Amino acid sequence: MWVLLDTNAYLRLAKRIKPLLGIPFGQKQYTLTILKLVEDEVHRSPRLRFQYPWFDQAELSTERLAKGVRLSAREKAEIEAMVSVLRAHVLENAASYSIHGRSPPSPADCYCLAFGQVRPGIVATDDLGMHHLGAEFEIPVWHGHELLKKMHSAKMISNEQVREIFAALENNDDLPPSWREARKGAFKKVFGRR
Prior knowledge:
Elements: E1 2-5, H1 7-13, E2 31-33, H2 36-44, H3 46-51, H4 58-67, H5 73-92, H6 94-97, H7 107-118, E3 121-124, H8 128-136, E4 141-142, H9 144-153, H10 159-171, H11 177-184, H12 188-191
Helix pairs in contact: 5-7
């Protein structure tokens, strides 16, 4: 089953889990992938390029190129049609996506969710607006820490890697509240009492 990483999910994991993409794991054979739009989003953003200078390392670029999703013309058309539905819904209900300081899902966010529906799979993101929109359209969406837990349970990553990822996010002031909760809950055995 495909697990599509949005930009924030990819950026939180790719530096410390190598290889990351295209390797089936777990009983359901989850396989992580990304879309070209992640690369485009990072390259368009001076802030992201500055914060993640490792993004263009040859090893990672090669992996993204080799393991990224290739869509058929039919899939592209289906995704574009679904993006239109999702965007219209977001625009009609913008207030419900703007509470608690959230931003409404962007066209790129809608594209990721549309992918999750057209190619049955799961979208991994910590964007709460995407979680809200995914729930309204019954598109499965995981938080990044839920994906990390699946990878850890499948022994794709070690306790040490989990601790390194959490520490790096915390040091970069990029540890979402849901990850803080997961550290005390799902990853309690990894971190012990804190």
